[in-house]
Sequence to fold (93 residues):
Amino acid sequence: MKTLVRIGVFCLWMVAATGALAAWWLRNPDQLRFINLPEPAWQYLLDLFRVSCCERAADVELGVALFLSFLAAAFVTFVGWQLFRRVRRRRMG
Fold:
Protein backbone atom coordinates (compact mmCIF):
# COMPACT_ATOMS: atom_id res chain seq x y z
CA MET A 1 0.00 0.00 0.00
CA LYS A 2 2.90 2.36 0.75
CA THR A 3 4.23 1.92 -2.76
CA LEU A 4 0.87 2.73 -4.30
CA VAL A 5 0.61 5.91 -2.22
CA ARG A 6 4.14 6.95 -3.20
CA ILE A 7 3.43 6.40 -6.86
CA GLY A 8 0.21 8.38 -6.56
CA VAL A 9 1.95 11.27 -4.81
CA PHE A 10 4.72 11.24 -7.43
CA CYS A 11 2.19 11.31 -10.29
CA LEU A 12 0.23 14.10 -8.62
CA TRP A 13 3.44 16.07 -8.10
CA MET A 14 4.48 15.68 -11.74
CA VAL A 15 1.07 16.75 -13.04
CA ALA A 16 0.94 19.76 -10.70
CA ALA A 17 4.53 20.84 -11.37
CA THR A 18 4.19 20.42 -15.12
CA GLY A 19 0.90 22.30 -15.24
CA ALA A 20 2.11 25.14 -13.02
CA LEU A 21 5.35 25.59 -14.94
CA ALA A 22 3.61 25.46 -18.33
CA ALA A 23 0.98 27.98 -17.19
CA TRP A 24 3.66 30.30 -15.85
CA TRP A 25 5.69 29.94 -19.04
CA LEU A 26 2.71 30.71 -21.28
CA ARG A 27 1.80 33.78 -19.21
CA ASN A 28 5.38 35.10 -19.03
CA PRO A 29 7.18 34.01 -22.21
CA ASP A 30 9.75 36.82 -22.01
CA GLN A 31 11.04 35.70 -18.59
CA LEU A 32 12.13 32.25 -19.78
CA ARG A 33 14.29 33.13 -22.75
CA PHE A 34 16.47 30.06 -22.30
CA ILE A 35 13.46 27.78 -22.86
CA ASN A 36 11.92 29.65 -25.79
CA LEU A 37 12.63 27.97 -29.09
CA PRO A 38 14.25 29.92 -31.93
CA GLU A 39 12.01 31.06 -34.77
CA PRO A 40 13.14 28.34 -37.26
CA ALA A 41 12.22 25.65 -34.71
CA TRP A 42 8.75 27.13 -34.25
CA GLN A 43 8.33 27.36 -38.02
CA TYR A 44 9.39 23.71 -38.38
CA LEU A 45 6.83 22.64 -35.76
CA LEU A 46 4.08 24.70 -37.39
CA ASP A 47 4.89 23.13 -40.76
CA LEU A 48 5.14 19.66 -39.21
CA PHE A 49 1.64 19.91 -37.72
CA ARG A 50 0.25 21.71 -40.80
CA VAL A 51 -0.96 24.71 -38.84
CA SER A 52 -3.32 26.92 -40.80
CA CYS A 53 -4.91 29.09 -38.12
CA CYS A 54 -4.04 30.81 -34.87
CA GLU A 55 -5.92 28.27 -32.74
CA ARG A 56 -3.81 25.42 -34.08
CA ALA A 57 -0.65 27.46 -33.47
CA ALA A 58 -1.75 27.96 -29.87
CA ASP A 59 -2.26 24.20 -29.55
CA VAL A 60 1.29 23.59 -30.76
CA GLU A 61 2.59 26.22 -28.34
CA LEU A 62 0.72 24.55 -25.47
CA GLY A 63 2.12 21.15 -26.44
CA VAL A 64 5.67 22.48 -26.51
CA ALA A 65 5.17 24.25 -23.17
CA LEU A 66 3.82 21.08 -21.55
CA PHE A 67 6.61 18.94 -22.99
CA LEU A 68 9.40 21.28 -21.89
CA SER A 69 7.74 21.79 -18.50
CA PHE A 70 7.52 18.05 -17.99
CA LEU A 71 11.20 17.66 -18.81
CA ALA A 72 12.13 20.46 -16.39
CA ALA A 73 9.93 19.07 -13.61
CA ALA A 74 11.33 15.57 -14.12
CA PHE A 75 14.91 16.87 -14.03
CA VAL A 76 14.34 18.92 -10.87
CA THR A 77 12.56 15.99 -9.22
CA PHE A 78 15.38 13.61 -10.12
CA VAL A 79 18.06 15.97 -8.79
CA GLY A 80 16.07 16.58 -5.61
CA TRP A 81 15.56 12.88 -5.08
CA GLN A 82 19.26 12.16 -5.56
CA LEU A 83 20.21 14.91 -3.10
CA PHE A 84 17.69 13.59 -0.58
CA ARG A 85 19.13 10.07 -0.87
CA ARG A 86 22.70 11.34 -0.50
CA VAL A 87 21.87 13.40 2.61
CA ARG A 88 19.94 10.52 4.09
CA ARG A 89 22.85 8.10 3.55
CA ARG A 90 25.30 10.48 5.23
CA ARG A 91 23.06 10.84 8.28
CA MET A 92 22.56 7.08 8.60
CA GLY A 93 26.09 6.00 8.32
Q: What stands out?
A: The chain has a mean pLDDT of 91. The longest helix spans residues 54-92.
